């Protein structure tokens, strides 16, 4: 039986890499993202490579969007085996620079969006007595970074949520884990660099020296770690946080001594 993976924030970056990875592993993939054009491109890539996919465009900060993603996946394939709760936004600024609207937006997406996604699929997985959820957090959840107060807080919050869900759902055969990526060259970072006239090659050079491996990650490297946690190869791993950060968290600094 083919398994089904639902991926939020799948239109770009780590989510897009996850969509491609799961498709190559034979999963039927539900691509969810707020950007309809990115959804269309991601699904076209998967179908063009012979994969099976559906696309859903919507704002994951709204619970109705999470229900729509689940319902369309069930309508298409009758089950949900994997959820990759990846959708998130990044907003910089120290605590003194933040306003109430800033907090509302980042928590609505980075925390409530993850919660909505999990809440929507958990009843399905409980009925199946099987399922795997991988929440995408960040190394920033445990290692402080100046000017990232709201982002760091939101990513720490989803780790607490992950542990709670793992405790409550293990008896149903559902494994809930998290991945904490380090610096990753996603579309977000490439686009920001391009706005400043910096090429992808120049950006990779700028990030050279990060962590123990002395470089930033590519989205596909994070996707493969997520794929492992979601798979039967990780069948006895639950309630855990996997740091995929090139050793950055081992030193707590951007460059090793």
What is this entry, summarized?
The protein contains nine helices and seven strands.
Please characterize this protein's 3D structure.
The structure is a single chain. The chain is globular and about 45 Å long. Strand 1 (4-8), helix 1 and strand 2 (28-33) form a beta-alpha-beta unit. It has 9 helices and 7 strands. The longest helix has 29 residues, at 100-128. It is α/β, with parallel strands linked by helices and 257 residues long. Helices cover 47% and strands 15% of the residues. The mean pLDDT is 94. Strands 3-2-1-4-5-6-7 form a 7-stranded parallel sheet, sandwiched between helices.
What are the salient characteristics of this protein?
257 residues; alpha/beta; seven-stranded parallel β-sheet; 9 helices
Please give the oligomerization state of what you see.
single chain
Secondary structure tally: strands = 7
Strand order in space, largest sheet: 3-2-1-4-5-6-7
Largest sheet report: 7 strands, parallel
C-alpha Rg, in Å? Answer: 18 Å
Structural class: alpha/beta
Proportion of beta-strand residues = 5-15%
Structural shape: globular
Describe how the helices and strands are arranged.
Elements: E1 4-8, H1 13-24, E2 28-33, H2 36-48, E3 53-57, H3 63-77, E4 82-85, H4 100-128, E5 131-136, H5 149-169, E6 174-181, H6 187-195, H7 200-206, H8 219-230, E7 241-244, H9 248-251
Parallel strand pairs: 1-2, 1-4, 2-3, 4-5, 5-6, 6-7
